[in-house]
Amino acid sequence: MIVTKSTEEIELMRESALIVSKTLGVIAKEIKPGVTTLQLDKLAEEFIRDNGAIPGFLGLYDFPNTLCVSPNSQVVHGIPNDTPLVEGDIVSIDCGALKNEFYGDHAYTFAVGEIAPETKKLLQVTKESLYVGIREFKLGNRVGDVGFAIQQYCEAQNYGVVRELVGHGLGKTMHEDPEMPNYGRRGRGKKFLEGQVVAIEPMINLGTHRIKQHKDGWTITTLDNKPSAHFEHDVAIVNGKPELLSTFKYIYEALGIESDEENEFRN
Ligand code: MG
Ligand code: MG
Prior knowledge:
By secondary structure, the protein is α+β, with helices and mostly antiparallel strands. It is 28% helix and 25% strand. The chain has a 5-stranded antiparallel sheet with strand order 8-7-9-14-15. Strands 1, 2, 4 and 5 form a 4-stranded antiparallel sheet that branches. A 3-stranded antiparallel sheet has the order 3-12-11, with no helix packed on it.
């Protein structure tokens, strides 16, 4: 069942989403060769708690940390550890926060120093595919329209679209209806509703779309060990149109990047 949110609830959800956005901004400043993903995890947990929220992933389905940190061929759900990042890595960081009973949940894939041109392009295309999907999250459309748009955009550039992991409705629970696959058929699936909030999160691979699960029970990697990228935003339907609740602006401030990519999704 899809649980729509009132205007007041959407404002609370924006607050939760922005705590995650700011956490990712704090992390962005620290991502460099030599830092360990466990150090990033500690920073994130402190920052979230200092902002009166609770880490959204810690303990959720028994996940052991605040961040899911997935370098290189890891797709999602990587567990922070003592291995330092090295120049040329990419690292997907997914973060959740719970405040006022509502969850925020979003993700960004960072470059560690200079990365290979083909990897840089993977990051650009994956991030753009997120916006391609968000444009379809509006009244009159259905779940399949978002997935179709993301899949078309990425497969046209020969990337693999992960099937087994999907976006989701978001609210007082981390994973609500509907599931939001990054593949699909136009005009299929549940209709979108005013006040609906979802996390849209393409997971896109440089090579095959196929993945494997590691023995730790969490980490997902690409079957061919090629890199994978993951970008996620929290989005509400307001006045029939998609409105971003999360933002990458704190990341961009930290990295000195100018971007107007989010402007079209602000009502
Ligand atoms: Mg997430
Ligand atoms: Mg999510």
